[in-house]
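To make the argument concrete, we let one protein speak, a sequence paired with a row of structure tokens, as a model reads it:
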Amino acid sequence: MTKRDWIWVAMRVFGIYLLVLAIIAIPGLIWSGYMTWVSYGFAKVGADSDDALDAMWGKLATSHFGSLLSSFVKVLLYGGAGFYLIKSGRLIFKWVYPPEEEPFKTKEPQDQVP
């Protein structure tokens, strides 16, 4: 195998790794979404209640919403980058291993035999 082949394989393996990270983030995305929904349901957001329990549920909902956004961004970024690396990855491959350019060939005058 040439250096070009090894780089191609390494990019595909890294793409698989990123897809695995995206798949691992999916349960966190689902759980955070569910807990955000439940927490906002229990918290009386916007109500005039000064209850400490409502404040706790509001802070908990905000915390879960941050986790929801974090998981969502992980799934999008890792999944998109992994899919790109596995599917084609041409731009990154050309950046890592630029195509070899042939040196300019000059035409040498040939001895003409009469």
Q: What stands out?
A: Residues 22-96 form one domain. Residues 3-42 form the longest helix (40 residues). The mean pLDDT is 84. The helical segments are 3-42, 52-87, 90-96.
